[in-house]
Specification:
The protein is 52% helix and 18% strand. With 411 residues, it is of the alpha/beta class. The strands form 3 sheets. A 5-stranded mixed β-sheet has the order 10-9-8-11-12, with helices on both faces. Strands 1-2-5-4 form a 4-stranded mixed β-sheet. A hairpin with a 2-residue loop joins strand 4 and strand 5 (69-76).
């Protein structure tokens, strides 16, 4: 095998001629040039174009290290005149357009960013974390259209996530059939959801059959407008969460009343009963079960609120055929219980009844979206150095959207 071919294999480059290799003080510089058929092509579209000028002369691209030595590819960087994109730098087979690193280096750094902390990636690749962010964004922009993430969407989930202090939100869309993150954008409002459906197109909107979401009006109104044939499913987790919040509100009211009446012992016992009331019945300890038994004897309204919460949980655990009837039966109790927080919940559930019943019938929840949100928060912690949501979104798409590139030399 020729030495030049060995260098091509080590550098992970194709359609490239290796002219010379020299050793500088702290790095290896490899002089290369593209095959003749790959010369004078537009860096954006790849079309063959006439040469415009020599550009900035010789240019270097960072390649994968060889042992402890950094490696750079050096070549001319002429500019060409494209009929569609004007004067641009000519494409090279070893690097993406406007990149200062080779494809193999980009893919390796992007893969590491999905597996390691920012300190580990920066130390291993010997580049700054902001450079890693630009690499991740570049890799996603190239791979996104090839994967056609929005094609064939039928069951989707829409949710928002806070990724940074100061009311900084992302709106995320998942595919329930694959479990992948398919789209994300900064912001949490109707305009952002409209942007997603604009990207999906009219034909894509018509294919959507089920949409899971919470009770946010800015999601529901846009879905009803853009996908009139789709069934909107209200996430059961948020419905039970309403009852949990209402139960804690009742407990606080009873605790405040006990303190105002000078019943210190009863107030302290109610304060310590919070977790016994909020935990699932199956997870209670013996002490917490005894606490609930005491509340049953001494505080009927609070214990009744606890039973309302638990029976609402049981509704969503019942078989789909029986759950809708159980929900109707449950609504009778809070309407008559005269416990104000649960009266308000009954009104809200009545307004959202069709969406809740659809979630029960189709067994569609936002659990996958909530799970992805947790993983996005972990990515945000790992990518704390990112000062832009675009880099975070790109890293989330790499990790959760099926866009992670293979390491060089692996399939």
């Amino acid at each position: 095998m020729r030495v030049t071919r060995i260098w091509q294999r080590m550098l992970c480059v194709e359609d490239t001629i290796v002219d010379d290799v020299c050793l500088e003080a702290d790095c290896v510089v490899v002089s290369v040039r593209p095959y003749k058929r790959r010369q004078h092509r537009c860096g954006v579209c790849g079309a063959r174009c006439p040469r415009y000028d020599s550009g900035g002369g010789l240019r270097r691209w960072r390649a994968l290290d060889l042992g402890p030595m950094r490696v750079f590819l050096e070549s001319e960087a002429p500019r060409v005149r494209c009929a569609d994109h004007g004067v641009v730098v000519a494409a090279v087979p070893w690097a993406r357009h406007r990149a200062r690193c080779t494809r193999a280096f980009d893919d390796t750094a992007a893969w590491l960013a999905t597996q390691c902390s920012k300190a580990a990636v920066s130390e291993l690749t010997r580049i700054s974390w902001r450079t890693v962010g630009r690499i991740v964004t570049r890799v996603v922009e190239e791979q996104g259209p090839q994967h056609s993430r929005l094609d064939g969407l039928r069951r989707i989930g829409i949710d928002e996530i806070s990724y940074r202090k100061g009311q900084r939100y992302l709106t995320v869309v998942i595919d329930h059939d694959t479990g992948d993150l398919v789209w994300a954008a900064p912001g949490a409002n109707k305009a952002v959801v409209h942007d997603f459906f604009d990207l999906l197109g009219e034909s894509g909107c018509r294919r959507v059959e089920l949409v899971s979401a919470d009770a946010a009006a800015w999601i529901q109104r846009v879905v009803e407008e853009r996908c009139p044939d789709a069934q909107l499913c209200m996430d059961p987790f948020h419905v039970v969460q309403w009852a949990t919040v209402a139960l804690d509100e009742v407990r606080r009211d009873v605790w405040r009343n006990a303190r105002s009446w000078g019943l210190t012992f009863q107030a302290n016992s109610l304060k310590g009963a919070r977790w016994a009331l909020l935990k699932n019945a199956d997870d209670l300890t013996h002490i917490q079960r005894a606490t609930l038994a005491g509340l049953q004897q001494t505080n009927k309204p609070l214990y009744r609120a606890y039973l309302l919460k638990e029976q609402l949980r049981a509704v969503f655990q019942a078989p789909p055929d029986a759950a809708a009837e159980l929900l109707e039966s449950w609504l009778v109790w809070p309407r008559r219980c005269r416990i104000k927080p649960f009266v308000n919940i009954a009104r809200t559930i009545t307004d959202q009844r069709d969406r809740i019943v659809a979630a029960i019938r189709h067994r569609l929840t936002n659990a996958r979206a909530e799970g992805l949100n947790t993983r996005i928060r972990l990515i945000a912690r790992r990518a704390y150095g990112f000062h832009s949501p675009d880099a975070l979104i790109a890293l989330a798409m790499l990790s959760l959207g099926g866009l992670t590139p293979a390491l060089p030399g692996r399939s």
